[in-house]
Write a structure and sequence with these properties.
The chain is of the alpha+beta class. The protein has 4 domains: 42 residues; 125 residues, Glutaredoxin (3-Layer(aba) Sandwich), CATH 3.40.30; 242 residues, 3-Layer(aba) Sandwich (Rossmann fold); 37 residues. The protein is 33% helix and 24% strand. It has 11 helices and 22 strands. The protein is elongated and about 105 Å long.
């Protein structure tokens, strides 16, 4: 009896000690859990959230990282959208940019809370991103962040997210100390530079302005390059003199030619100093692998792989309609080097009588290819180096043609233009990322095995573990 009483007297203390120990353990567990939660919350989203999307929708590429890491000034991005209506893709991408550099931050601006905020920025509207650095800014409309390309094979539209390309281009533009100026000559019945090309040039931190050399005494000193788009009239003597002087002092000329209606004696004289001459005829391709839509005058030329074209897909296509051929001298003038950018097949011909075309076949007087339809020529004069880029057709700038080759026409033009202006081509041209769903395909055998594991093995294992734990607690 004394032994039983002794045990009863000690029991409450033992149970109390066990209860206290349990509470302490629970408190420690809760504290550790809170600590882990806080620590995980401090880890960047790029680590805690794995990008499983097709093409890495939320993963910043090497080009973006190079641009972001080179930022020396703070950049503020405003997302103009009602709170709760944010685009998840845009918001996630902005977070990744902010985590990549301490010089980038972004802020939500709800237009219902800040109704006049958008008035400070031209073209800003709901859904826009406004990228600012000091007094420079660029507005990215919501519809510019997505691309919709028509697939002629399936008859459907393929959607892609172009957010990284747009934001990185805006970062480059607003953070740049200087913006290279590209002057477009006018006064020769030239074609206008398409607006989408102008917009892309702005994203690439290139400014454009039209000038008439007849009203000037020299090409402006800040000209990074001069552009001439499909002129129908020749340069005057005065213009030729100014352009020649500009090139002799290290200037750069980009020419989009074609089939002019009049002689171009003065312009041809400038080009001949770089060993370049026109065939003065319409290039017709006889190789079906180098034409589009069955039309021999709609070319799909070969794209050279070099530093000037690396911003384009050299394994893809560019489309050019109604080209004049370019002949490069076998023996170039002294101190001149020429690089062929675009070439036809050997089966191509140049139709001399193109104004009265009656057949695609070769006739007397027609020249036999291959021809260049895109050339980069450089000339070294003492300590300066001038350059001429000549494309055989202004059709390279056509928006419809560009869409048919998934933007490779404009990518090539901008890549070459960047080289002319002294920009780093490697930091240009970020491809948009597809939004198409990619389904996980599991073979039937694997599906059956995983069904058995999930429906039978795992529940049975959980039951066995539960029974074992219950028995152990009863025996304790």
């Amino acid at each position: 009896m004394k032994l039983i009483q002794k045990i009863k007297n000690k029991a409450p203390n033992r149970y109390f000690r066990k209860g206290a120990a349990t509470m302490v353990t629970m408190a420690v567990v809760v504290a550790v859990a809170i600590g882990i939660n806080v620590a995980v919350g401090a880890v960047p989203e790029s680590i805690t959230k794995i990008d499983m999307t097709t093409g890495g929708l939320y993963t910043l590429g090497d080009t973006t990282k190079t641009v972001v890491e080179s930022l020396q000034k703070p950049v503020q991005i405003y997302y103009l959208v009602q709170d709760g209506q944010q685009d998840a893709a845009v918001e996630t991408l902005l977070n990744r940019y902010a985590q990549q550099s301490k010089n980038i931050s972004w802020e939500l601006k709800d237009p219902t809370v800040y109704p006049t905020f958008a008035h400070n920025y031209d073209d800003a509207s709901e859904g826009s991103l406004i990228v600012t650095c000091g007094e420079k800014y660029q507005v990215l409309a919501n519809y510019n962040l997505y691309q919709y390309d028509y697939d002629y094979t399936t008859g459907n539209y393929d959607s892609s997210f172009d957010g990284e390309n747009q934001i990185t281009s805006a970062l480059r533009y607003v953070s740049s100390e200087e913006t290279p100026m590209i002057y477009q000559l006018k006064g020769h019945n030239e074609s206008q530079l398409p607006s989408d090309i102008s917009d892309r040039m702005k994203q690439q931190n290139l400014a454009t302005e039209q000038i008439n050399l007849l009203n000037l005494e020299q090409v402006p000193e800040d000209a990074a390059a001069v552009m001439l788009v499909y002129p129908q009239k020749d340069l005057t003597e005065h213009e030729t003199q100014l352009l020649q002087s500009y090139l002799d002092n290290g200037g750069k000329l980009m020419l989009f030619g074609g089939l002019p209606q009049s002689d171009m004696t003065n312009l041809s004289g400038i080009l001949s100093q770089y060993g370049l001459h026109s065939t003065n005829g319409l290039v017709v391709e006889q190789d079906s692998a180098h034409i589009y839509g069955g039309f021999p005058n709609v070319l799909l030329p070969n794209i050279a792989q070099n530093s000037m074209t690396q911003g384009a897909d050299t394994n893809g296509y560019v489309l050019m309609e109604s080209c004049e051929g370019i002949v490069v001298d076998e023996e170039l003038p002294e101190n001149v080097t020429a690089t062929r950018l675009l070439t036809t097949s050997e089966q191509a011909i140049s139709k001399a009588n193109w104004t009265e075309l009656s057949t695609w076949e070769k006739e007397e007087g027609d020249l036999q290819g291959p021809f260049s339809v895109g050339v980069w020529a450089e000339k070294t004069i003492e300590d300066t180096q001038s350059a001429v880029v000549w494309f055989g057709s202004a059709g390279l700038l056509d928006s419809n043609a560009d869409a048919l080759v998934n933007g490779n026409n404009s990518a090539l033009v901008l890549s070459v233009l960047a080289g002319l202006a002294g920009q780093d081509v490697e930091t240009l041209g970020i491809a948009s990322k597809t939004l198409a769903a990619e389904y996980l395909v599991v073979p039937t055998a694997d599906a059956s095995r995983w069904n058995i594991i999930c429906m039978y093995v795992l529940p049975f294992a959980a039951l066995v573990v539960g029974i074992a734990v219950a028995i152990r607690r009863r025996m304790a």
